[in-house]
Amino acid sequence: MTPLSRFLSATMTATRWGICSAGKISHDFLVALKTLPPEDHKVVAIASRELSRAQEYAKNHSIPKAYGSYAELAQDPDVDVVYVGVVHPHHLPATLLFIQAGKNVLCEKPLGMNAAEVKKMVQAAREKEVFLMEACWTRFFPALEKIRSLLNQRTVGDVLVVQAEFGVPLVTVPRVLKKDLGGGALLDIGIYCVQLACMVFDGEKPESIVASGFLHETDVDKTASIILNYSGQRQAVLTYTMMTWMHNKASITGTKGIIEIPGPFWCPEELVVNGQKEEFPLPHPSQKLYFINSTGLCYEAEHVRQCLLQGLKESPIMSLGDSKLLHSILDEIRRQLGVSYPQDHA
């Protein structure tokens, strides 16, 4: 945090959050917010399509207002920024609703079902001059901050290869198998591998993309390996599956060494840099979490606050350009795998 940011943080009131959806990820986000100073972050309202669900969450998390529609949340004058945690296909309409109401938005990944949807959201946010960021929480972990510092310092020399693997058994989760709900492993877990490569190679567009994998009987992707080839004969080799567990680790190999990110690499608590381990402990949750290491969602929330305090309309760490690049790569991967969604033909 810069001296200016510390001064602003001390003199400004709390960032007032609205929560869109009363699902599992929203619960974990709320628990993560409780690890931050209450004078900096305050949840003032939550909305669900079922009022009773919103009321239940409001009671469990001490939220003053509960709404039975997203439109009501959009019109709440006390909300500074909305966290959108709805299912993938609803990201576009929900985010546009809040943007049009003049709200700043932190939308869960994937920001859109495809690059075209992302472009619509980016355009709308710029027209309304509000903040918009894809909630790619991995990038804001202290371990990832350290990685960016190491890369800037060229600690491992010139990066030649990025490797990442993400495998968890999601085949028993009904939503993940349904194409109309944005199912498939790429948008849920493969995206973490791709975004890591995008970050390490500093937003450079790959020269070529090679994807090979297998589809579930419901025509969503279940397992795939991806090679992203970059200029200078640099490469990212990525594998994901929703059929079983993998080691879920990643590595960044350069001409002078290697940065290892032990599993779970997308929410890490440690790094091994040229054989030396460094730990980055996470805040302890005050309530049960649905997903591993979810108190780490606090890092992206605090980043959003700092961006808003500085008057930024996008993040310097997960920019709107980053999201557009990420989703253009995801689109090409799906094209090669043979996965399409109704939104691709809209």
Describe the structure.
It is a single chain. The chain is of the alpha/beta class and 346 residues long. It is 35% helix and 24% strand. It contains eleven helices and 14 strands. The strands form two sheets. It has an eight-stranded mixed sheet with strand order 8-9-10-7-11-12-13-14, covered by helices on one side. Helix 5 (91-100) runs parallel beside helix 6 (115-128), helix 6 packs antiparallel against helix 11 and helix 9 crosses helix 11. It is globular, with a radius of gyration of 20 Å. It starts with a helix and ends in a 9-residue tail after the last helix.
What is this entry, summarized?
With 346 residues, the protein is α/β, with parallel strands linked by helices.
